[in-house]
Amino acid sequence: MQEGIFAPTYDLQGNVLSLIDSYYSEKIESYEYNVFGKEIIFDGNGEQLLDSSVNNPWIFANKRKDKTTGLINFGLRDYDPNRRGLDFSRYNILSSIIIVELYAIVRAFL
What we know:
Oligomer: single chain
Structural class: alpha+beta
Low-confidence stretches: none
Order of helices and strands: EEEEEEEEH
Number of domains: 1
Strand order of the largest sheet: 1-2-3-4-5
Largest sheet: 5 strands, antiparallel
Shape: elongated
């Protein structure tokens, strides 16, 4: 992040809405999000930016966004806000198949 002390403001879901410069009490940046968590960044004057001017990594759901990959780190998994649709991992699909097969086997013996 750029040098300085910034105070974030949040919405009820924990998304960062803006950064305030603590020394000058000015809004440095503000953020809006689409339903998938893709951020739109604005400067203090309301002009849209392509990237954070202060290199703020904490954006959507107050999670850290990796600058190189663009993925948001949610602890056990990384989330891609540019990807549309449901996020199925191969482990979720595999466990669902195993559960269905176990159910079929148990039902066959009843």
